[in-house]
Design brief:
The complex is a heterodimer. By secondary structure, chain A is mostly helical. Chain A contains 14 helices and 2 strands. In chain A, a hairpin with a 3-residue loop joins strand 1 and strand 2. The termini of chain B are far apart. Classes of the chains: A mainly alpha, B mainly alpha.
């Protein structure tokens, strides 16, 4: 890695870090005001705790000497590095925090903070790095099969998405979200759509670092194409979601449009260096539509995902990974390559969903993960953190200002 | 000069006529009177949305109602009635005070004196519960509450019995005299959970806000603020 590449990577570390602010804004905006502090605390601790856990354990699990192509066995608590290795660790730490923080939005408004922290630690220290070891460790079994995930559509986003699905299933829906009598889904609007939009903009900005920093070198990869494809994928995701809403004669919702663009960004992540710009537009647009369709499907199944994380990250991530086999301009189309990508997608679901499900069940059995209905009524800001997000504006249920 | 409040009542009455029965329309007019203060498109949208959410009007119909309401505000026929008179007539229903008079006829647990006034907490609780169940008349709140008391998380045989008794006498709260403050709080939470299950959390918050505004007006609220139940 030459000096210019080190500097570029350092910038990308900061950009991916800043994505946490994007997630915090987006998730808090999609939640009710009485839970805003709780959502943001979860995001903040995903970074604070997750980074330490990943440095201590996760990096070794992911990039240590691979045992049978499954798991790393050294480089734990690393203390001595070359500049290249240090930048690599810092960069991967941000990825680990991203995978963990995807879950926080899906399960918000009804999960105990302590239980969530324990789960987040397991994502950063075990679930994410083990799958990462299969794909991004040179000796990982999926890497050896030829599986390609350029910057983490599956490794980061689908892992986060499937963990979210497990959490949503184990936790159950928020109080009153679905009618017992008619199974009708009731909207629980978030308290700030401007937060949601601003969050998406920040994520979009960070994504230039997320994809741009995944290059092997400036000589090997076309950085300009990667950044262009990233941007086009996000644009197309928004347009694809809007088009589908229009075709279904639904109102054009800003929340769905914004989530559509994030789905586009997720999908482009797997093949940002492999797609042509036209293919990037197609992949992004499809991701936006798939997101919109899957969100409605999950609602019909009464899976209460507050921010649509399963659809945005899980489904769009899977699509983007498959799209590498369909639209890569570097690798000729073959059914074999399609099967390899499908193998990785299925392996990710099998690993992340099952381990996360088991962990949530164990946490629920031993410490309880679901906040009581009384705490849901009062808001987790006060019941979990003894703080209120908007003390000058927030009304308590008794009609008085706090 | 046009009376804008009258115009809004007339528009709401006509706008909802094809979709709501008379009682529901009166409920919609009440919501208008309570919450719609300043003219504006945002408030129009918010009001229509709130009524649709409360009475389960579909999203497709809701979109047409935005337009109809706006149109009626600009183009109201001269012959349109003002539903205010009907609303005022409908307000002649037994006030919760009647039910609480029946409470005060009983001997309260605290001092055994005949015809003693019920404790403030019971008065406030009764007012709160009465307002909530009155607000939720169009949904089957008692059935939902019964299911909740049979449910794993909220199973409670004492409350199950109370709900059975209450459902037969919705205006009578004499049973509240037998409950301690902690039990009353638990019951209020059960009520909130029930309204959430029946109408959704957004409507539940609105319903409770409205009930609390009424409770705050009672003299007993100085001695026992409704917030203590929440």
């Amino acid at each position: 890695m030459n000096e210019l590449e080190v500097i570029w990577m350092a910038v990308c570390v900061a950009l991916v870090f800043f994505m946490q602010a994007g997630f915090a804004f987006l998730e808090a905006g999609a939640a009710r005001a009485k839970n805003a502090v709780n959502v943001m605390m979860k995001n903040y601790m995903d970074m604070s705790l997750g980074a330490v856990i990943f440095w201590a354990v996760g990096y070794g699990v992911m990039f240590g000497d691979s045992v049978f192509g499954l798991i790393g066995s050294d480089r734990f608590f690393p203390n001595q590095f070359s500049s290249r290795d240090a930048i690599h660790l810092a960069y991967q730490t941000m990825f680990a925090a991203t995978a963990a923080t995807i879950v926080s939005g899906a399960v918000s408004e009804r999960i105990h903070f302590g239980a969530y922290l324990l789960f987040s630690a397991m994502v950063s220290g075990f679930i994410y790095p083990v799958f990462g070891a299969w794909v991004w460790n040179d000796n990982g079994w999926l890497a050896k099969l030829g599986f390609i995930d350029f910057a983490g559509s599956t490794v980061v986003h689908s892992v986060g998405g499937w963990c979210s699905l497990a959490g949503v299933i184990v936790l159950g829906p928020r109080l009153g979200r679905y009618s017992r009598a008619t199974s009708e889904a009731r909207e629980i609007p978030g308290h700030s759509l401007p937060h949601v939009v601003l969050g998406a903009f920040i994520l979009w900005l960070g994504w230039f670092g997320f994809n741009g920093g995944s290059i092997q070198s400036l000589e090997h990869d076309n950085l300009g194409l990667i950044l262009l494809n990233t941007h086009l994928g996000g644009c197309a995701g928004a347009l694809g979601a809007m088009l589908l809403m229009r075709l279904k004669r639904q109102p054009i919702l800003v929340s769905r449009t914004v989530n559509g663009s994030v789905a586009g960004l997720v999908s482009i992540t797997a093949g940002a260096s492999h797609f042509s710009p036209a293919a990037a537009l197609l992949v992004g647009a499809m991701a936006g539509m798939l997101y919109s369709i899957s969100v409605d499907l999950l609602d019909r199944l009464q899976f209460d995902d507050v921010v649509g994380a399963v659809s945005v990250h899980g489904i769009a991530g899977a699509w983007g990974t498959l799209a590498v086999a369909l639209f890569s301009q570097d690798i000729a189309f073959s059914l074999g390559f399609v099967m390899v990508q499908l193998t990785g997608i299925v392996a990710c679901f099998a690993w992340a969903f099952s381990v996360a499900f088991l962990l949530f069940k164990l946490l629920d059995k031993f410490i309880g993960i679901r906040a009581s209905t009384l705490h849901e009524q009062r808001g987790l800001d006060y019941t979990e953190h003894y703080e209120v997000g908007y003390p000058e504006f927030q009304k308590r249920l008794d009609g008085k200002m706090i | 000069m046009k009376d804008s409040r009258k115009l809004r009542r007339q528009a709401a009455w006509m706008c909802f006529e094809p979709h709501l029965n008379e009682e529901q329309r009166l409920g919609a007019i009440q919501m208008l009177e309570h919450s719609y203060q300043v003219e504006g498109v945002t408030n129009q949208i918010s009001y229509i949305g709130a009524v649709c959410a409360r009475y389960g009007i579909s999203e497709k119909v809701r979109k047409s109602l935005y337009f109809n309401f706006h149109q009626l505000l600009s183009d109201m026929p001269e012959s349109a009635i003002d539903p205010l008179t009907r609303l005022q007539g409908d307000r002649q229903r037994p006030a919760p005070k009647d039910s609480l008079d029946s409470v005060s006829d009983q001997k309260p647990r605290t001092n055994g004196k005949p015809n003693a006034k019920p404790p403030a907490k019971v008065v406030i609780f009764s007012q709160l519960a009465y307002q909530v169940q009155d607000d939720c008349k169009h949904c089957d709140l008692f059935t939902t509450l019964r299911h909740l008391t049979e449910d794993g998380r909220n199973r409670n045989q004492v409350f199950a019995g109370i709900i059975e008794h209450w459902s037969k006498n919705p205006d009578n709260f004499s049973w509240a005299l037998k409950l301690e403050e902690a039990e009353l709080k638990q019951f209020v939470h059960l009520l909130y959970t029930g309204v959430c299950e029946a109408l959704g959390p957004v409507e539940a918050d609105r319903c409770f806000h409205r009930a609390l505004v009424v409770c705050e007006r009672r003299a007993e609220a100085k001695e026992f603020p409704p917030a203590r139940f929440l």
